[in-house]
Amino acid sequence: MDFTFTEEQQAAAEAARAVFAGVAPDGVPSPSLVPGAVADDFDRALWTRLADADLLSLLLDPSYGGSGLDAIALCLVLRESAKVLARVPLLESSAAAVTVQAYGSEEARTDLLTRVGRGEIVMSVAAHGRTGHDPAELAVTAQRDADGAWVLDGVQTAVPWAYNADYIVVPATAVAGDAGLTETQHTAMAPVGTDRVLLALVPRVHEGVVLAEQISTAGERLAELRLDSARIAARDVIDADGAWEGLRELLTTGTCALALGLGEGVLTMTGEYTGKREQFGHPIASFQAVAVQAADRYIDLRAMEATLWQAAWRISSGATGVLPSAGDVAVAKIWASEGVRRVVQTAQHLHGGFGADVDYPLHRYHAWAKHLELSLGPAAAHEESLGDLLAAHPLG
């Protein structure tokens, strides 16, 4: 597989490096030292710089002021953002916007996309279900009313940037119950089936929408989203096959890119520290036990990178294979969830006492790594899913 990036993709990565060059990962207090979230809002100044560099519209068509690039370009930018723990909703807003572009109504595309690319509108996604362990699409139900709008009920947990987003994309399962529809409306609308998943663009401030604060492992402000008969107009509901699956795979692959960037930042930090820290008159990096551990983590990162680009290429190109793209995404998740944990644990070990110092930047990286690991889910579960795919699609 040729993982050579195009000139446009490389240009996006270079622009990201320039924007993130001045971001200090230790600029936010440790979550263990503050009573609530580390901050009430994301980094708005950085968000403006990303918009000025056209990095918020990477995936949007030129007709909406975008660059028309793909998931690989987005992952390259996310990789750079995670190296400095950039506190911006880049993944969620970009993934939501490209989903609206691909599947949304003309009214929604016209109203939202250009403003998303300029950074004027922020979007997030509710993708963790009621508890974080159940499918997100089963946590909320959607039922049509007599006017053709959709009424949403349910709860989604751990919604990132919910208090700062203008819209939250919420997956919901359509349920029967069209009482009040006329015969003409029944005929004009697609039949409701319990296996149909819709995506609703839910305004943060809306009747029937309630947010309850949650604090993440990394000290970031999340929200439990409660929907109580929240009525969403048909133009703001995506009812298309593959929309939720595509959005979910892009979010997952982007999270793997964040894990890779964070791991690379941590390994660089560890190399610099072990190269300066001396013991018995020599840098500890020259000791075999230290070098072997660092080398093992480098191998982890290269495996995370290879599986990430394979997954990003599959969902970008739509290429077919023996296994569906979900198989490549599962492999990337296996490596990312375990790899990022091993990298930060080894880094803390090799830093000695500094690894346990909550005032040292490594503590923030460890907290973020744990949050990413929990977001991706356990590797064993992904291995089981991969096994099911292999059983359903025999390689022979």
Automatic annotation (TrEMBL):
EC number: 1.-.-.-
SUPFAM superfamilies assigned to the protein according to its UniProt record, in alphabetical order: Acyl-CoA dehydrogenase C-terminal domain-like, Acyl-CoA dehydrogenase NM domain-like
Signal peptide region: none
Domain Acyl-CoA dehydrogenase/oxidase C-terminal per the UniProt entry, residue ranges: 255-382
Sorted UniProt keywords: FAD, Flavoprotein, Oxidoreductase
Cofactor(s) essential for the protein: FAD
Domain spans labelled Acyl-CoA dehydrogenase/oxidase N-terminal: 6-120
One Pfam family named in its UniProt record: Acyl-CoA_dh_N
UniProt key word Kinase: no
Listed InterPro entries: Acyl-CoA_Oxase/DH_mid-dom_sf (IPR046373), AcylCo_DH-like_C (IPR036250), AcylCo_DH/oxidase_C (IPR009075), AcylCoA_DH/ox_N (IPR013786), AcylCoA_DH/ox_N_sf (IPR037069), AcylCoA_DH/oxidase_NM_dom_sf (IPR009100)
A GO MF term: oxidoreductase activity
Cross-referenced Gene3D superfamilies: Acyl-CoA dehydrogenase/oxidase, N-terminal domain, Butyryl-CoA Dehydrogenase, subunit A, domain 2, Butyryl-CoA Dehydrogenase, subunit A, domain 3
Family note: Belongs to the acyl-CoA dehydrogenase family.
Name of the protein this chain belongs to: Acyl-CoA dehydrogenase family protein
Classification of source organism: Bacteria, Bacillati, Actinomycetota, Actinomycetes, Kitasatosporales
